[in-house]
Amino acid sequence: MTDGEGAFEEEYADLGATTRDAMEIAETSMDIVRQFVPDETLADRIRQKSVHSMGDIEFQHLLEFTGGDGIGDDEDAPVRAGARAVLEEATIVTDITMAKAGITSRGHDCETRKAIGNGAELAKETGMTRTAASVLELDKRGVYDGAIAVVGNAPTAAFALADCVDNGTRPAAIVATPVGFVKAEESRQRVREVSEAHDVPAITNVGRRGGSGLAAALTNELIHVATDVRTGELELDLDAETRAGNQNR
Predict the structure, then answer these.
(1) Closest CA to 228 of 238, 213, 242
(2) CB neighbours of 208 closer than 8 A, spacing ≥ 6?
(3) HSE-up of 37 (CA within 13 Å, CB side)?
(4) Contact 155/184 with Cβ under 8 angstroms?
(5) Active site residue ranges
(6) Mind listing the pLDDT tens digit of every residue in the chain (249 residues)?
(7) Whole-number Å distance between alpha carbons of 3 and 111
(8) Alpha carbon distance 16, 27 (integer Å)
């Protein structure tokens, strides 16, 4: 048993709490969220986490689920693909340090790394942003193939990642929620376009909001889904319609 596998046995709440009082607060918080957000599909779990992360009940309506996996192209596909990648110990690659810092170290044996800090020479030569250059540099090394690609801050990183997918790179799943008033919406739309064109599962949002905290929270939910699969609490290989039907019986 590896050190990571040993961590699977530790009890912790979905929001990262480990003490009994903190776990009760976390669980109560999510119970409140579930009063306002459906709890039928895997995509609903992502919606719930987005509402909690953003402190906004309406944010559930701003999420988009695109691409497909071996089961289908329903809204659960990106969640299934992401959870499956966690179970297969895929690398989780974030755009910047803040998103990486927010991803839990519990419940998985995935390497978590950041793109920023790579590609300095490319950025200097071309004038592109450091985050875009970092994504391109890691892609050149094959890091994004089969990985969970997370973009929480930089629209230019999302654009670069989308270009990589257009050129043949195939992440296992993408979580892209870059925030801001300059090209953020457009970058997420670009991710959705390549997701649908190349059947790469992706979770994005519409509007100007987003950020590293949201990206980390959604990635953590992929890890928590994988944990539930590992412990036998959840069957992964169901489409959203079947899962919702089972919940309503």
Answers:
(1) 238
(2) 179, 180, 181, 184, 185
(3) 27
(4) yes
(5) 52
(6) 344 444 444 444 455 556 777 778 778 888 888 999 999 999 999 999 999 999 999 999 999 999 999 999 999 999 999 999 999 999 999 999 999 999 999 999 999 999 999 988 899 889 999 999 999 999 999 999 999 999 999 999 999 999 999 999 999 999 999 999 999 999 999 999 999 999 999 999 999 999 999 999 999 999 999 999 999 999 999 999 999 988 777
(7) 13
(8) 11
Specify whether the backbone of 8 is left (phi greater than 0), alpha (psi in -120 to 50) or beta.
alpha
Please state whether beta strands 148-151 and 112-114 pair in parallel, antiparallel, or not at all (unpaired).
unpaired
Other CB atoms closer than 10 Å to residue 163's CB: what's the count? Answer: 16
The tokens for 153 are: 């801050």
Distance CA 38, CA 244 (A): 10
Contact 154, 214 (CB under 8 A): no
User: What does the DSSP 8-state code read for residue 116?
Assistant: B
Task: Name the strand (E) or helix (H) holding 130.
Answer: helix 130-140
First-residue to last-residue Cα distance in the chain:
39
With contact defined as beta carbons under 8 Å apart, do 22 and 11 qualify?
no
pTM: 0.90
Token output for 151: 């973009």
Q: Tell me the C-alpha to C-alpha distance, in Å, between residue 106 and each of 7, 51, 63, 226.
A: 6, 22, 25, 11
Three-state secondary structure call for residue 211: coil
